[in-house]
Specification:
With 189 residues, the chain is of the alpha/beta class. It is built from 6 helices and 9 strands. The chain has one domain: DHBP synthase (Alpha-Beta Complex), CATH 3.90.870.10. The chain has a 9-stranded mixed beta sheet, sandwiched between helices.
Length: 189
């Protein structure tokens, strides 16, 4: 069996090469790529048969990285992330330093991931990764690895070889939209 460190390195190698991955997150299994690589993001949309007017969630390894990818991080964002009991994705008004096609508009949805594998991959890559559920667009989300269709597995360049029998949290993250006046609305609970 492959070690954690070997699998992180292998996954990072694929991401650096502009490839797509099928991987475990702190919620459900996801499809991802280097969030700064437009061609790789196009491949994620194609793999999922997802309309390009539907934005992708971006994962970062810690809250300090938000300022690298968000034009103005409202102060309340850090408090919300710290207080969240379950995975929380936040939509910010304007992104920067990301692939142009991760979002259908200027906004960006980012989650500070709390999954050891994801954190280490992002840390070693030195860039955020995209995250979208491991299912074809319009189909139900795959809660476990065994729920992922063969078509979805075949549509990515690499499948992470760890956590196939692990069920982290079988639910998508909560999504909120933050406004510059430090108010917010719940988009998905």
């Amino acid at each position: 069996m492959i070690s954690f460190e070997e699998e992180v390195q292998r996954t990072v190698t694929f991401l650096k090469a502009g490839k797509t991955i099928l991987y475990p997150t702190d919620t459900i299994w996801g499809v991802g790529c280097d969030a700064t690589n437009s061609k790789a993001c196009d491949k994620v949309y194609a793999a999922k048969k997802r309309p390009t007017n539907k934005s992708l969630i971006i994962l970062v390894d810690n809250a300090d990285r938000l300022a690298d990818y968000v034009v103005n991080v409202p102060a309340i964002a850090y408090d919300l992330i710290k207080a969240a009991k379950r995975p929380l994705s936040i939509i910010y008004a304007e992104s920067k330093n990301l692939a142009r096609n991760v979002s259908a508009d200027k906004s960006v949805c980012i989650r500070v991931v709390k999954h050891d594998f994801c954190q280490e991959v992002i840390r070693q890559l030195g860039k955020p990764i995209t995250s979208t559920s491991a299912n074809l667009s319009g189909q139900p989300s795959a809660v476990t690895y065994s729920d992922i269709t063969e078509e979805m597995k075949q549509s990515v360049d690499y499948t992470v070889q760890l956590y196939h029998d692990v069920l982290a949290r079988p639910k998508s993250s909560t999504i909120i939209r933050l406004f510059e006046d430090n108010t917010f609305e719940i988009v998905r609970n």
